[in-house]
Amino acid sequence: NAGTEADVYISVYGERGDTGSRQLLRSQKSRNFLKGQTDIFAVEAVHLGRLYKIVIGHNGLGSGNGWFLDKVVIKDPITDLDYTFLCHRWLDQGQDDGKIARELPVTDASTFPGRQELECKREKTWAAEKWKFQKGMTLQFYNRLTRGFICLYPDNRVDALGDKKNKYGKVFSMWMYA
């Protein structure tokens, strides 16, 4: 359910102005915005110079209107430059932060694919793993040193003795980055 049937709009901003809100209508694919699909659109506009951000979103209408957007790449035919705008988030009133529009800055070519991509992978991992931290969940961490489990209970108790048995079923691997 990562695709959408809602109407999708984009505004592109550059050093010489912006396109205004444009609906993305005709992709080179038969159906737009399907899960795992790359859609390609031609948008006519005056040359905006160097691009620095986009605003992309949808109208929230239609069944299954929530949408997970990975990234947007804009190819400038005049300068032959590619501008990448990373998202890796939901545009969905019922997911993530509930927003159906996102303002995305251009990804600096000097940091891509290094630090910026690593940050996006971290955010993507957190989006998939954050359910484990909901209220009422018992968390357990495997301690390689003691070869036991440390449990954090919903009532704020901590079992840090390193019990050798896995009392709660499955062990989750987790990496925390600060």
Automatic annotation (TrEMBL):
InterPro entries: Inner_ear_hair_cell_LOXHD, PLAT/LH2_dom, PLAT/LH2_dom_sf. Residues 1-105 form the PLAT domain. Signal peptide: none annotated. CDD domains: PLAT_repeat. It comes from the Eukaryota. This is LOXH1 protein. It comes from Dicrurus megarhynchus.
